[in-house]
Amino acid sequence: MCDYTEVEFRCGHRRFVVREWCEKWKRTHRCRFAYYRDVVGITFILERRCGDCNRGTKRFVSMSHVGKS
Description:
Blueprint: E1 3-9, E2 14-20, H1 23-28, E3 38-45, H2 51-55
Parallel strand pairs: 1-3
Antiparallel strand pairs: 1-2
């Protein structure tokens, strides 16, 4: 599995950025486990909103901020 870093923004949205590609991905550019994420780190960027919120467009609704005060 590829290693990912979870990035959480001020708006509450999260993105997953590849930290290191797995060997299968390096060889084939395909990985049947691409939908599984091995999150090896978390980064908070609380001074910025995500790109979708900055542009005023949202591709999906994140429920990660629900219940937070």
